[in-house]
Amino acid sequence: MRALIGPRAGVLLGAGLSTACGFAALGVDGVYDMLALRCRIFILEQGPYLDPDGLDRQSWHLLGRDEAGALRAYLRVVDPGLKYAEPSIGRVVLDADLRGSGLADQLLAQAVQRAGTAWPGLGNRISAQAHLQRFYGRHGFEPVGEPYLEDNIPHIEMWRPPA
Question: Which of 25, 29, 37, 59 could hold 76 in an S-S bridge, CB 3.0 to 4.6 Å?
Answer without folding.
Answer: 59
